[in-house]
Structure formats: structure tokens, C-alpha cells
Amino acid sequence: MNAFTAIFLAALLIQVAVHAWLMLRHQRHVLAHRDAVPAAFAARVPLDAHRKAADYTLAKLRLGWIGIAWNALLLLGWTLGGGIETLDQWWSALEWSPLATGTAFLLSAIAIMAILDLPFALYRQFVIEQHFGFNRMSLRTFVTDQAKLAALLVIIGTPLVVLVLWLMETAGSTWWLWVWAVWTAFSVLMSWAYPSFIAPIFNTFKPLEDETLHSRIENLLARTGFPNRGIFVMDGSTRSTHGNAYFSGFGAGKRIVFFDTLLDELDADEIESVLAHELGHFKRRHVLKNIAIMAVLSLALLATLGWLIEAPWFYAGLGVSQPSVHVALLLFVLALDVFFFWLLPLIEGLSRRFEFEADAYAAQHADADALIRGLVKLDKSSANTLTPDPLYSAFHDSHPPTPLRVARLTAMQR
User: Fold this and answer.
1) Active site residue 379
2) Domain that holds residue 353
3) What is the mean pLDDT of the chain?
4) Among residues 278, 355, 379, 389, which one is catalytic?
5) Which of 85, 270, 359, 389 is an active site residue?
6) Helix count (H) and strand count (E) of the chain?
7) Beta-sheet strand order (sheet of 231-234)
8) Are the CB atoms for 80 and 318 separated by under 8 Å?
9) Residue 278 a catalytic site member
10) Is residue 207 domain-resident?
11) What is the pTM (predicted TM-score) of this model?
């Protein structure tokens, strides 16, 4: 057995075992606290809502158990099972140019992975979400969304893949620097284009019509110095009852978006406070920091791929006999999660730190108690558990558990 094969299998086994252990901890922790609302929330959250959140969490975990095994088997099938080798041989037999072959190979691999994930997506949406009363999406809308995603993959993904593969083939030993520049520019471009050109493909956005709420928000924006292109309401209720709010875009193109479900759930004070939290991300430069972090991380990863792409043991160790740049790219992406699983607590920890900073900003510029009420209402309406396992949360949650956020916000008011 190739030494790298042994390392890969050991890393995969450890990752699956740790992931399963974390899920088991989370399952036991949520179940153990199912019949008692945390004391700090007893006056705000009814026991039946708390139990619903526990049951919803457990239902998602049960699907997660299947997902762990399925994803591990798929990874082994793609690599040591010969899936990548077979797909590459099929496209190579057509005797197209290396660039055309590589592009078709990567796009078809992405399409196959998406198709294999469809049963899980359907079960999540039309069984779990439906059972707990969150789903408002019809099967027709689901299919239409998938068709739109496929079209975007072809329209946007094809030129990007062609350019990346061309640079990998022609830019010499420093190709990874050029690819990094392209990827960084693409990421920034998509952040700018998403609110104006991509999001409207899936949802309808209308200007906020509530004049009283609009005036309050405009006053908050003026106090915080937040230029924007408008305040919009998104028809999130056409797909789900879950609520959210966000801002997107750069410079004068920034826009604020409320889900219509959030506006239905919260009062004006709570909406203003939730928006102040989102503005806190902007004022604390979290978006720019995330872009910078991802740029550094992607540079390190591409440099690593630049080294591996010349190593025969990398291909042989993952079940491929014929090296190529497109095969190396897919192998690297597939194996990445196995070896970088341990970075999740650092990445999610930084994200949770940003959330705390945004909460602190909201407490300074809006009503902290209103933010607390809003967080609790959103958790209740979305059935987010108030009792996650701390270690599981450290690996999987980009937002701090609501009890921790409420405790900090309460302390700020003393």
C-alpha cells in the first residue's frame, strides 16, 4: 500500500470517528435537556417550543448519521474506488484538447456530486422541514431552483474553470500565484454581483413599504454612517418560515435585506436591533477581514497544490494512475476536508468572535434588550436549540449559542 494511501485512510477514519463522537455528544446533550427550559429563558420560551427545538435538532442529527457514512463512502468511491480514474478515462477517450477535457471532467464531476446529494436535500426539505412546519417550498420550486443553479454553474463556472486550467497548464511553476489572483478577484466580483444579479434569480426583492419602520431604519443608518442603495424585503416565505436579515455588496452598492418572515415575527424595536447587529459586522470590518483571511488561506492551499501536483505519490495514493492538472485539482478539493477538519474550531471560533463584536455594537447603537428579545424569538420560530453540546458547537456553529449571547448582552446593561 502506498504510504500516502495509509495516511489518507487513517485521516479519514479519524475524521469520521471524531465527527460521529461529536454528533453523539450533541445528541445526548440535547436529549438530556429536552424536558427543561434553561432557567434564564423560562419566562420567554414555552416548554413545548423548547421540546420542538430539541426534536428538530435530533431529526437533523439522525440524517447526519447517514450523511457521515455516505460522504465517507463517496470519497472512497471517487478516489481509491476508481471513480475519478474512470471519469477521466471516459472524457480522455473523446480525444479533445487537454483544456476541453479538463473542463468537461470538472463540470461533470460537480454535476454528479450534486445529483448524488439530491436525495438528502429532498429529505431535508420535504420530510424534516415539512414535518416541523418550516417548509413552504413546492416540489416545482425546488426543481426550478436546481435548474437555475445548474445554469449558473454552466454560465459562470465554465469560463472560470477554463481560465484556471489554462493558467495551470501555461503559467509555469508559479501558476498557483496567477490562479490565486483570479480566484480572489472572482470572489470579490461575486460579492459585488450577488445582490444585484444573482439573488433576484431566486427571490423577489421589494423596497420596504412600512414608512414608520423605514424611517426608524433610516435614522439608524444615519447615526451609524451606513451608505446603501436601499432597504429591501425578500420573499423568504415562499420557501421557508425561517427568518433572517443581512446586508451585501460593497461601497455605495451596499443593500440591506430583510426576510419577510423576520418582519412578521419581530416588532419594530427588535428589527432595529437585529439590523444594528448586521451593521456591526460592517463597522467592525468583518467582511473585509473575512475576505483577507480567505485570501491568505487560499494562497496557502494553492501553494500546497502547486507542490502536490508534481508528486506521483499524491496521485497514486488516491487511486489515480494518469496525472493531470484537472485530476490534481479535484483530488485536492476532495481530500481537503479530511486533512483540514481540525481547523474548523479556529474558523468557527473567529466567526463567533465576530458575532459577539456585532452584538456589542448593536447594544451601543440600539436597544440591547430588544436584541435579546429578537434573538429569542428567532430561535423559537426557527426551533434552534438552546442547549447545544459545547464541543459540538465549537466545531460546527458559526454563531455562538443564544444563551451565551444573551448572557453577554445582559452583562452590558449592568
Assistant:
1) no
2) 1-173+298-414
3) 93
4) 278
5) 359
6) 19, 4
7) 205-207, 231-234, 255-259, 245-248
8) yes
9) yes
10) no
11) 0.92
